[in-house]
Amino acid sequence: MAIPQRSNSRPSRPDSRPQKKFxxxxxxxxxxxxxxLKIEYKEPxxxxxxxxxxxxxMPRRITGNCAKHQREIxxxxxxxxxxxxxxxxxxxx
Length: 93
Hints:
The longest helix has 16 residues, at 67-82. Helices cover 30% and strands 0% of the residues. The N and C termini lie far apart (69 Å). By secondary structure, it is mainly α. 11% of the residues are buried. The chain has a domain at 34-82: CATH 4.10.640.10.
């Protein structure tokens, strides 16, 4: 009795469309391009750009900062939270 052979190729979908090309805008570090900008924990308005609505620190891949400045931003946010300039958690109640 012969066993039917399975093909390794996937069956094509009847509604398969060509993949769209997705354009990614190049992210850049705001602090590397403009050397006059400083990361200060005393300025919570500038640090709010790097915190989500719920109070989490946004990652580097989202903000586009370099590793050096992302570490400085993280330290500044944590210091601002400690002296109550920024909230630790934003409650939704």
